[in-house]
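Name: Diaminobutyrate-2-oxoglutarateaminotransferase
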Amino acid sequence: GELPEHLRETIQRRNKVLGPGYTLIYKEPVEFVSGHGAHLIDRDGNDYLDAYNNVPCVGHAHPHVAEAVARQMAMVNTNTRYVQEALVDYAERLLSTFPEELSKLSIACSGSEANDLAVRVARFHTGGEGIIVTRWAYHGITREVASFSPHLGAGSPLGPNVRLIDPPDPRLAVPGTTLAEHMRQQVRGAIADLERHGYRLAALITDCAYTSDGIFTDPVDYMQGVVEEVHAAGGVYIADEVQSGFARLGESMWGFSRHGVLPDIVTMGKPMGNGMPISGVVFRPEVCEEFGRNVRYFNTFGGSSIPVAAGAAVLDVLEKENVQQRVLESGNALRAGLREITKDSPYVAEVRGAGLYVGVEIVKDRETLEPDRLLTEDVINDMRDRRILINGTGKSANTLKIRPPLAFDSADVTRFLETFAEVAKNRL
Ligand code: PMP
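Structure predicted for Diaminobutyrate-2-oxoglutarateaminotransferase:
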């Protein structure tokens, strides 16, 4: 359809003044002026179902978070160089959601900063430089983190100290090998290749839901062997929970728990403040002690009062509204419905995911699994035209990424599935 006049004008002005790299999603871009739960409202009062934004995890404009931030903003904002009881309370509370070995918290402002610090500490602790990530991983935007984010593409070169392994897609395992064997073999090979080039291992870092690789949440039986290989080589395992954390996957607060492993470092961000910029790094104390003794790390906004107030309010809501249970129920219903709708489609290879992180892989042919990026884009834009927001992910951007605010309830699931069925009838 035709873009509304004011939107066309704003986009023209935007293109004139904004720096490089800004892109809009959807053939017909959209602007929102308010939101609640998993709903977004445009200027004309139309209600969109948000099935894509994971930052407003407890819901858009959640009143409890808004009130906590406004109250703190109207009182004072101090940084970590002053005693802040609220920061200590928050750290104790957040750490209580982790196994007791993970007992130290640093706070920063973005997932990128969290991963930057995590890897810096890992290098310091291990004396190594080598980094292993999955083949289409994304971990952030600093120069260091971009150097191990292959998802950024050819224009953003990987470091010579970086090695790539397959994501845990069971279909990539060589016939006759289990996924666990395949993953272990991949890590062993990467470590050997690093050593051959003079790099000792610092860290393996994985997104616990492998979201930019195409969303691979199951099975969960391979990580133990992988972490053993990493430790045997003197490296640490960093779990990137920026996407998978804060109950997103339904079964647990943290994605790594599903895999039955204990990371040395965990990073988190996006949903942590429901929109306030706050991110975290959780360490086993022995991993970060030397770094702390030798390096000064001060982050002006990281751990200051306002973002911490937002973080604490998010934890309140996660507890009070029993969010994890809702994620489990909505996620299961959503995946079951999607499987039912697409079971006879020649173009849907797989519906996968856990909790409210769901992927639908779209292919030209179910046998060859040849990706169909254009069809994926058509589905995404058809959904948007019917006022439901999703996007795509994976190596060939051919997996629908369905990742709503955790406020997504059973009425939202029903609306999503009814609309998806209409789109699927035409396209899939
Ligand atoms: N890690 C993962 C897994 C991410 O998905 C992202 C952001 N998409 C980041 C790190 C970086 O976070 P931020 O954009 O807050 O810097």
